[in-house]
Amino acid sequence: MNSDKSTSFPKLSGKELVILELLISRGELFGLEMVEASDGTLKRGTIYVTLQRMGDKNYVESREEPRRIPEIGIPRRKYKATGLGEMVYRVNVKALEFFNSNLVWGESN
Amino acid sequence: MDEDKLRNQIPIFRFLNKHKWRILLPFLLYAGYIYVPFYSVNNSIRGVSHLFVTSTQNATPENLNQEVTKITEQVQSDESILGLIKKHGLLSKDRRLGMPDNELIDKMRVSMVVGMDVQSPPGGASVFVWANLPDDGPEKTAVLYGDIISRFESRPDFTVTKIANPPARISSASLSFRILIALFWIFPALFSSLILIFIWEIPSLFYSKNTQEMVFDPIRSDWQDERIEAKTHGSTIDVVIVNIRYSFAFIGSMLAKSPIGELFEFVGKVAR
User: Fold this and answer.
1) Is residue B181 part of a domain?
2) Angular region, B186: left φ>0, alpha ψ -120 to 50, beta rest
3) Model ipTM?
4) Smallest CA–CA separation between B239 and chain A, in Å?
5) Cα B181 from Cα B100, distance rounded (Å)
6) Are the beta carbons of A44 and B245 separated by less than 8 Å?
7) How far apart are CA B51 and CA B268, in angstroms?
8) Residue A100: CB atoms within 10 Å
């Protein structure tokens, strides 16, 4: 069990990292808001697939936002980071910082 | 509104209402495609000028034909065509773009025909002048006809009769052509509608309910929002761009959730 924990470090992909960063810094967001806020990193065609996979891993959770009265159509879905997602994000950021600082140190020596 | 709801409870109406644009779009596209050649056919028919030329000097039909042929050949010579282009300011768009003279002549030769009609009645020569110059407009085309016709009229040994109405056989041919095409394009349009409906329904046919709710419904929802936004605050081009962008997004998501997409994701995960 312990060895299991040590080998299953939850690495995030670039897109997952951007999504969690946006959700943690801005709170609950719609998919389209994340696409617009990501400056081209997230695409309309792949964001929901990534979000679904992140939902399966319990990094994000979503709820349907009903449309206001004059609006009609399919309800929109709002996403927020879970506690696990936030923790995984922070671990990945720390790991990246550690890796980058060591890389700089390694290069300078 | 209640009537709409009631209507939507009947499956066939619900289906038609849901897919109305996927059914109509191919029909509109095919109609637009067919409209273009019809327009040019109509334009050409209106543009044709027919002359009936007889000789005042009892020339034989062979001699008369030879004389008329000479004029038609002279009209279509390089010098004459270039003279007509410059005199009447034809092909203005191409000249503005700096098209050289030899290319202007070639283009004009394709856009204008002066010839002998094969249906030539006995005792005279039938001549037709045809021009299709959509960039220059009907006024300039009319002036061009006048100029060419005057070359026949200026001959003292010719009597020129203008035939106002184009021959019936051209009109009837175009009418039957129209009916034929109209019958033909219904089938490809219907087929295209079915393909579009099939693509739209792929998610509900091949993907789980969870994937439909988590992936395809949000895309449809965003698509609707951006399309309404473009319709309200943008132009038709913006609506088209939104539709193209989301068509790709929709197909991209279908691929990403297909076994191939899952394989790529797995390989990517292993590589990380």
Assistant:
1) no
2) alpha
3) 0.78
4) 16
5) 38
6) yes
7) 76
8) 10
Q: Can you name the residues that pair with B160 across neighbouring β-strands?
A: B53
| Contact of A63 with A75, CB cutoff 8 Å | no
For chain B, which residues lie within 8 Å of any Cβ of chain A, measuring from their own Cβ?
Answer: 210-211, 214-222, 224-226, 245-246, 248-253, 256-257, 261, 265, 268, 272
Contact residues on chain B for A77, CB-CB shorter than 8 A: 214, 217-218, 221
CB contact under 8 A, A48 and B252: no
> Which domains occur in chain A, in start order?
12-108 (1.10.10.10)
Count of domains forming chain B: 2
Q: Are B185 and B30 in contact (CB under 8 A)?
A: yes
Mean pLDDT of B48-57: 69
Q: Are B117 and B130 in contact (CB under 8 A)?
A: no
Per-residue model confidence as pLDDT tens digits over A29-86: 999 999 999 988 898 888 999 999 999 999 999 998 887 766 677 788 999 999 999 9
From residue B218, how far is each of A26, A51, B166 by CA, in Å? 20, 11, 59
B7 lies in some domain: no
CB contact burial B35-44 (16+ within 10 A = b; e otherwise): eeeeeebebb
Domain that holds residue B121: 49-165
Tell me: pLDDT of A2 over 60.
Answer: no
Give the ranges where A1-109 is alpha helix by DSSP (H).
Answer: 2-7, 14-26, 31-37, 47-56, 83-108
Question: Which pair of structure tokens corresponds to residue B210?
Answer: 């969870």
B161 and B211, same domain (yes or no): no
Give the pLDDT confidence score for residue B37 in this predicted structure: 43
Residue B173 forms part of a structural domain: no
Same domain, yes or no: B152 and B216: no
B83 and B149 fall within a common domain: yes
Residue-wise pLDDT tens digits, B214-240 = 898 899 888 888 888 888 887 778 888
Q: Average pLDDT for residues B34-46, to the nearest whole number?
A: 40
In a domain, B108, yes or no: yes
- Report whether pLDDT(A26) > 60: yes
Domain co-membership, B138 together with B213: no
